[in-house]
Amino acid sequence: MYRVFEALDELVTIVEEARSVPMTSGCVVPRGDVLELLDEVRDSYPSELDDAQDVLDHRDELVNKAKTEADDSLSTARSEAEKTSSEARAEAEKMLADARERADEIVAQARADAEQTINNARREYEDYIARAQSESDRMVQAGRAAYDQSIHEGRSEQARLVSETEVVQQSQHEAKRVVDEAHEEAERLRSDCDAYVDSRLADFEELLGRTLRTVGKGRQQLRRPMSAPFDYEEWQTSEHGTAVSEH
Q: Spans of biased composition, class Basic and acidic residues (predicted)?
C-alpha cells in the first residue's frame, strides 16, 4: 500500500510539472511514465480489495444465506425451548407429587409422634400420681402410727403422772403436730406432682405447636404457583429443626 501512495504522488507531480497546451487547460504528459505508474498502482493494490468486491457482489446471496441460517437456528431454538419447557413442566409435576407425598408422610409421622407423646405423658402422669398417692398414704399412716404411739405414751405417762397434766397436753400437742406435718407433706407432694405434670404438658403443647407450624409451611409450599420453585432447603431446614426440638 505504501508503493500505491508513492506512485500516486509521482503521478500528481508529473501532472503538476507537465507542459501546458497553449490556449487550453490541458497539458502534455509522458505517456509511458504515466502508464508505468498506473500499472504499479494496479499491481500494488492488495488482493483483499478484490475479495471485498466479491463480497459486495455476492452480498445479497450472503444476506439470504445468513437469513436462512438464522431462521433455521430460530426454529431449532424454539423446538429446543418447547422441549425444555415440557421437560421442566414434567419435572415440576413430579417434584410437586413427591412434595405432597413427603408432606403426607410428615403429617402422619407427626400425628403418630403426638399420640405417642400423649400416651407417654399420660402414663408418666398416672405413675407419678400413683407414687405420690402411695407416698402420701405412707406418710399419713406413719403420722397416724406416731400419733397412736404418742397417745399411747401420753396415756402411759398420764397413768404414771396423773397429777402432771401439762405433760399430757404436750404429748397431745406433739401428736397433733406430727399429724399436721404429715398432712402438709402429703399436700406438698401433691402440689409438686401437679407442677411436674403441668410442665410436661406445656412441653408437649410447644412440640405440637412446632409440628403444626411445620405442617403449615409444607401446605404453603404446596399452594405456591407452578412458576415459583420449590424450596427444598427451607423444607429440609424446617423439618430438621422440628426433629431436633422433639428430641
A: 79-92
State the residue for C-alpha cell 407429587: 97
Question: What cell does 96 get?
Answer: 410437586
How is the chain classified by DSSP, letter by letter?
Answer: -HHHHHHHHHHHHHHHHSEEPTTSS-EE--HHHHHHHHHHHHHHS-HHHHHHHHHHHTHHHHHHHHHHHHHHHHHHHHHHHHHHHHHHHHHHHHHHHHHHHHHHHHHHHHHHHHHHHHHHHHHHHHHHHHHHHHHHHHHHHHHHHHHHHHHHHHHHHHHH-TT-HHHHHHHHHHHHHHHHHHHHHHHHHHHHHHHHHHHHHHHHHHHHHHHHHHHHHHHHHHHS-TTSPP-HHHHHHHHHHHHHHH-
Please report, as a single letter, which amino acid is at residue 145: A
Q: Which stretches in the chain have pLDDT values below 50?
A: 227, 230, 232, 235, 242-247
Residue 167's CB: how many other CB atoms inside 10 A?
Answer: 14
The whole-angstrom separation of Cα 177 and Cα 187 is 15
- What gap in Å lies between CA 117 and CA 200, rounded to an integer? 10
Q: How far apart are CA 39 and CA 60, in angstroms?
A: 32
Q: Which residue bears the cell 466479491?
A: 54
- Please report how many Cα atoms fall inside a 13 Å half-sphere around the Cα of residue 122, on the Cβ side: 6
- pTM (predicted TM-score): 0.29
pLDDT in tens, 129-168: 888 788 878 887 887 888 888 788 877 776 776 655 666 5
C-alpha cell at 50: 478484490
The cell numbers describing 94, all together, are 413430579
